[in-house]
Design a protein that fits this description.
Layout: E1 8-15, E2 20-24, E3 28-33, E4 47-53, E5 56-61, H1 63-66, E6 77-83, E7 93-99, E8 103-108, E9 122-128, E10 131-136, H2 138-147
Parallel strand pairs: 5-7
Antiparallel strand pairs: 1-2, 1-8, 3-6, 4-5, 6-7, 9-10
């Protein structure tokens, strides 16, 4: 007898200044308090410098700014450390600026896609609860850092 099963994933909804991102739990290594990054002036506007985490220097970026929007560092700003997925030995983690505490959501295989404008680093938009969340292209984010010489 075959049992009908929907695949259940747990996702994290990351609150940004002007949108929410949804990521699988396994993409996120840790949430840390906001700290200003140390950086040179001759860098792209979306690059916020390097932050210290577990005795490493991790590149910090603003996702909104990669999409052409302005950088917001609100009073609830935090940093999410993401596991880099591209297999590059020089890039194990990426730090992403978020505006608050990520929330966990159960996602099933029946995600409903939403037709909204996407920026180049967004793969899709989906309905999560009562909100629309964007699915970021994490490999393209890594490529952005590599091609800008920031790894």
């Amino acid at each position: 007898m075959l049992e009908h099963r929907t695949s259940n994933l747990t996702g994290l909804l990351l609150p940004l200044a002007d949108r929410n991102l949804i990521l699988p739990n396994v993409a996120v290594a840790e949430l840390i308090d906001y700290q200003p990054g140390a950086f040179d002036l001759d860098t792209p506007p979306w690059y916020l410098g390097r932050v210290s985490w577990r005795e490493r220097q991790i590149p910090l970026l603003s996702f909104e700014s990669t999409c052409g929007d302005k950088i917001v560092i609100g009073e609830r700003a935090r940093i999410v450390i993401l596991n880099a997925l591209g297999g590059r030995p020089e890039l194990k983690f990426i730090a992403l600026l978020v505006q608050g505490i990520p929330r966990s959501y159960k996602l099933d295989s029946q995600l409903s896609y939403v037709d909204v404008p996407l920026c180049a680093l967004e793969q899709a938009a989906v309905q999560v609860g009562d909100q629309v969340a964007k699915v970021p292209d994490l490999l393209a984010l890594e490529e952005l850092l590599v091609s800008a010489g920031l790894v």
